[in-house]
Write a structure and sequence with these properties.
By secondary structure, the chain is α/β, with parallel strands linked by helices. Helix content is 34%, strand content 18%. It is elongated and about 85 Å long.
Length: 600
């Protein structure tokens, strides 16, 4: 301590745990505590719920799971050494809490319980946890440190404001904030605002890695009391972010006894913030260079999120290889690119399944793409199977007495969106897609490989896909990527390469499912630029029909798109999980009834 200033070296251990692997996660934490110690850190912060992984969902309801997590925390504490470590875990007491343990001096020296539990979007924390009711501090090498967890700092006020008034000059925040486009920059601006409001420095350690549909982007930050970013971690990669802080000596302020808006249910008026523990740590030697990694550009950020989401889904679920059905179209090209970049081309098998309706141009482009990537190529013409199905269906007669296809839930509309009167032509189109889906799943069964589906968000929104056909698979990499963004991402990836990975003709050709002669997407759908605008407003922003039309979009097109989205809910319920990159994805985010008569 020099005068009224305190020097503190903090490390943010931006790590990638695996949900449910408590022992593996404990080993990961132990290894990164050692790294932080070697870097001379006095305090190391891990992400929210690192011991169990996040979100552990209904594993958090299992008492033996919670007991195993606590046992791992106690064992980590016994070997922590000359450093203070903040480790997130589910605390089982009279109720279960989302907590962080301060490990020091061979024991769990303090525990803080998260006050604000998110219960919206992808979050269900009220299902699993009870909120804490006490802001809290610890003292590390003479510096008062306020404790918060993720959501606790997303809004002005307590608990962070109470902790700052109680003398905290640094507020730490173990976090599991999932990625969506632009989220990292938004989160950093929010932290800067909290710092300026409270007059305290902030250190946010965010989780990194893929967990089913969610991707966590890292992008951990340390921000000074006046809102300047002092350190910033990489996006989508594990990293130890080390920063030296020069903190003012703590002088607690008398706490206000008035009601704090927005927290009336969580904290009583006049809440205080006790110092839970006073912990020692050796003073660091030397200085560390500022660690400020520049954020990625928007398209690069999305591409890296998709890579990490796929890589972790494959790795954490024990797959050796993936299968991609490559058609010569833009969507399968993007999925193949991401797979090759995420896993290496030697772990990617691309399957080309031409039909009599496949053009020479698309087939040539499909093979060129596979060759450019260096992936394995499997070719299976489907014409013999098409003939076999045709014979079987012909033998079934004219279908007298069957229920006619209508446009409501349960009607398979596939690539032909208006099913009224579609008859045998629609059935023939869907059979082609289902033959391909059947073959992909047969290859998966034979070799144990993961099938990646290739549908984008625009198609999934309006049901422009075939159940048990092109929707068949284990993981939907671009399920949340609108069609217009698909084109941008392919162009972005092509520009990174010395050679053209995706042939230019794939980018220039009008999109087509090639399930009948001369078929084009635009025969059944509005132009994708217009479609994606409507879908962003209706699906992601929850805007109503009249509001969308007021933006200058044609009323008849808006009505058609809304109807297609609503009647395709049953189909999306049966889709593979896929990576979330927007503010509202199908699956965990958007939950609407299948049986539903509310329109628009």
């Amino acid at each position: 301590m020099a005068g009224d200033r305190i020097r503190l070296r903090i490390a943010l251990a931006q790590v990638n745990p695996t949900v449910g692997d408590i022992q593996g996660n404990a080993r990961l934490i132990s290894a990164w505590i050692a790294k932080a110690r070697e870097a001379g850190a006095q305090l190391v912060v891990f992400p929210e719920q690192t011991v169990t992984g996040y979100p552990a969902e209904d594993l958090w309801l299992k008492p033996h799971f919670l007991d195993a997590a606590r046992a791992a925390v106690d064992e980590l504490a016994s070997e922590v050494g000359a450093i203070v470590a903040l480790v997130g875990f589910p605390e089982r007491d009279a109720a279960t809490h989302n907590s962080v343990a301060a490990l020091a001096n061979g024991q769990v020296s303090a525990v803080y319980r998260k006050v604000l539990l998110p219960n919206y979007g992808v979050f269900d924390e009220r299902r699993y946890f009870e909120p804490g009711d006490t802001p809290a501090l610890i003292e590390v090498a003479g510096a008062r440190v306020g404790l918060t967890i993720c959501e606790d700092i997303w809004y002005p006020g307590p608990p962070a404001s109470v902790e700052a008034l109680a003398g905290a000059k640094l507020i730490v925040n173990p976090s599991a904030s999932p990625y969506q486009r632009g989220r990292g920059a938004y989160r950093e601006r929010m932290v800067q605002e909290r710092a300026r409001e409270t007059g305290a420095a902030f250190a946010v350690c965010n989780l990194v890695g893929g967990q089913d549909e969610l991707v966590f982007d890292g992008h951990s930050v340390v921000v000074s009391e006046d809102g300047r970013t002092l350190a910033r971690g990489s996006q989508f990669a594990e990293e130890l972010v080390v920063c030296d802080l020069d903190l003012a000596e703590s002088r607690p302020t008398e706490l206000p006894r008035a009601h704090e808006p927005g927290l009336d249910e969580a904290l009583p008026a006049g809440a205080t913030a006790p110092v839970l523990a006073r912990l020692k740590a050796p003073a660091p030697s030397g200085n560390v260079e500022p660690h400020l990694v520049e954020p990625l550009e928007p398209d690069a950020e999305v591409y890296e999120a998709l890579k990490l989401g796929l890589r972790d889904y494959v790795r954490k679920n024990g797959f050796d290889r993936v299968l991609v059905a490559v058609s010569g179209g833009i969507d399968s090209a993007l999925v193949a690119l991401i797979a090759a970049d995420a896993l290496g081309p030697e772990r990617v098998s691309c399957v080309v399944m031409p039909s009599p309706h496949s053009s020479k141009e698309t087939q040539a482009d499909a093979r060129a793409l596979v060759r450019n990537l260096g992936a394995d190529l499997i070719e299976i013409p489907i014409e013999p199977a098409m003939h076999a199905y045709d014979e079987l269906l012909t033998a079934s007669g004219d279908g007298t007495g069957r229920v006619a296809a209508g446009p409501g839930p349960g009607t398979e509309s596939a690539r032909e969106l208006d099913t009224r009167g579609a008859g045998s032509e629609l059935a023939a189109e869907n059979i082609q897609a289902r033959i391909r889906g059947n073959l992909m799943m047969a290859l998966s069964n034979r070799f144990g490989w993961l099938v990646l589906t290739t549908g984008n968000k625009s198609e999934m929104s309006v049901g422009y896909a075939t159940l048990y056909g092109d929707m068949a698979g284990g993981f939907a990499v671009i399920k949340d990527v609108p069609k217009t963004l698909v084109y941008r991402l392919v162009r972005y990836r092509n520009e990174l390469s010395d050679t053209e990975l995706v042939p230019r003709s794939v980018l220039e050709r009008a999109p087509s499912a090639e399930l009948r002669p001369g078929q084009l997407d635009q025969d059944s759908l509005p132009p994708y630029e217009m479609l994606d605008r409507i879908l962003a407003a209706y699906v992601e922003e929850d805007r109503g029909r009249d509001e969308i039309v007021s933006d200058g979009l044609p009323a008849e097109v808006v009505d058609e798109v809304i109807a297609m989205v609503d009647r395709s809910e049953y189909k999306r319920r049966q889709a593979s999980p896929g990576i979330r990159i927007t503010s509202k994805a199908f699956g965990r985010d958007r939950r609407l009834p299948i049986t539903n008569r509310f329109g628009g």
